[in-house]
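Incident log, entry 3
Record: Glutamyl-tRNA reductase (424 residues)
Problem: checksum mismatch between cached and fresh output.
Input:
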Amino acid sequence: MKLQMIGLSHHNASVEIRERLAFSPDQAQEALKTFRSRFPDIESVLLSTCNRTEIYTAALDGNLCPTHHDMVQFWAEFHQLEAKDVFDNVLERTGEDVVRHLFTVAASLDSMVVGEAQILSQVKQAYELSTQIDSAGTLTHSCFQAAIRVAKRVSNETTIHKKRVSIPSVAVSDFASNVFDRFDDKNVLIIGAGEMAEETSRYLLDVGAKEFTVVNRSLERAERLAATFAGKALHWDQLHEAVIAADLIVSTTGATEPIIRLEEYKQLEAARFQRTLFVLDLAIPRDFDPRIAERVGVYLFSIDDLRQTCDKNRAAREREWPKAERIIEDETAKFMADLNHRATAPTIRRLKQRSDELKDEELKRLLNKLGDIDPRIADEIIRSFDRLVNKLLHPPLESLRDEAGSASSDSLLDALKRLFRLYD
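Fresh output:
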């Protein structure tokens, strides 16, 4: 029985690397099918998000599992890359470390934004895809179902998911939500097309925003980001037109001076008909003249306004972190104990059954030979045989339980099967 994972994330790989080695949903399905055809006895689940890509594999017979090199070679071939391009950027985990890692990922303790809810749905989707195409199996079913349960426990028993710590998450959950009751009827304008713009847009999407417009100096980049949210892209010279139409603006450009000055906004103001305007100016230097905040109906927040809330939330979350880690460790230990029990239980059961059969045969032979004896003596003989068998079995079974889950457990289990001839 073996669990293993190779993968990369924002912890050890740049966004350029992550983009090259990621799998779209269609690619993930194709990759899992190809993997299954190459390794028919191996279970697999592929998790690919903007911040991580991980391939989980498992097998009841650990000897059948592909090697680290096999996994890397498969990944590289799928993306038509050199194996070294993958090998130099991925990490490997096996056994208990895989379980602990998956539980940590699902609970959003390993995310770029700790506590964000999106990763659990992504873990569920990865598992469901694997199940749909019959790529999952006994071990991966157990592992991923447990991970989903653990994530819910962390969410219910700690406040780690309730305190946003990233600038975009705080901007949406702590600021924009205080201005707007709903987002599905709001026109969202994204100015700039970098990571901050994309992350903030994802949070807005999560709270119900549907209408997105992207304006960027590079129309091509604007179109790429807009396509992510089924929005539209506009040329940079249409910026003023977009500001007039917007209800909520997220601005993240790298401009060295304001892109909307107070005088410019005053010229656009009449066309807005005093509609509320919420502006998240996440650029440094600021994109919007700070004096615009004084205009009627304008809620303008800069990155400094948000940072203080982030710091408070981070401190509150850090107090909850040990509690979340204890849950992960507790659940990992329980899962491994159950997994090891399932691995050794059939062998232990067969050994006890075989011992009882031999004991009963010898008891029957002895009691028949002794003939008509005092029932109390017969009962004592039976109890003596039982004690003898139990004492003989206790050391090997105790060793098997003690070694369960360790590197030597498979060889010990195999030795026990051979010594007592317990093979099916």
